[in-house]
Design brief:
The protein is an alpha+beta fold. The protein has two domains: 238 residues, CorA soluble domain-like (Beta Polymerase, domain 2), CATH 3.30.460.20; 53 residues, no CATH class. It is built from ten helices and six strands, in the order E-E-H-H-E-E-E-E-H-H-H-H-H-H-H-H. A six-stranded mixed β-sheet has the order 1-2-6-5-4-3, with helices on both faces. Strand 1 and strand 2 form a beta hairpin. Helix 6 packs parallel to helix 9. It is rod-shaped. The mean pLDDT is 84.
Length: 311
Amino acid sequence: MPKPRPTITTFSNSAKDFTWISIERPDPSVRRLLIETHHFLPVDVDDILRGLQRSQINVRDRYLAMILWFPVYVKSERAIVGSEVDFFVSERSVITVHRGEIPAVKSFLARMGAKRERELLLSEGAGGLLYHLLDLLYRHCFPMLEHITKDVKAIERAIFDGREREMVEEISVVRRNISEFRRILKHQDTVLRTLKRVDPYYLAVGWDLYFAEIEETLEKIWSLLETHKENIEAYKDTNESLLTYRTNETMKVLTMVNVLMLPLTLVTALFSVSVTGIPFAQESYGFWIVAGVVLFLGAFLVLYSRLRRWW
């Protein structure tokens, strides 16, 4: 099956001489476009095209190259995975490169389809467009966090409803998703701090105000993730404690049954020995006498163990 070709979408504001180019599903032809047409350094282009598994930023004299990873929920697998969005930001353009997996990017492309919305977004220049893109990408994290919140609450209810065994897998799924969410967003605060510290001229005046909002949004996301991590770890420990307690109770009952049966087995074994002189062997009610002795001994052992609080 042939590999899909890149989809390149261009939006321009001629009055502001500013362009946004969205490149979806990049291939080697995109490398030539970025290097030969837009004159980006090959090292920056190669970092993007090879799928670097971490966020990073490189600030150059006339542009910045930034790689950011964002979480995407795969419903069929009940898993959160990372998807990469790359940015080349210069005074006259913003170029984004992605694989078409992030709903936020698709949503932003749809917004750009309306002429008035497009002109408004492009009129703010590189800093404004970058802000709106990042703001939407980060805000799309909140529905996934809400989903995790519901999963954690469902696990809490199930644990205390006595469904500990069912929750072992559920806890593992949620822990995996929280861990992956944290891994994806790790180091992004460093990237944003670098962006704030450098403050390139092509991001326009007022970028620090844009940045403050993005930084605050990221802090909220990270705070929610920390809360979810603490909660799921607490429920994991609680679930394991309850499972251990129930297992111990089961083993306790089985042990007591074995202990109670041992004397009874001994008595019945003695009376079943094929030798002369067995008590009650010749009595017409011998069987019932032996049965009565066994039952009496069993009742005595049960009562004694209860009085001693062995079970």
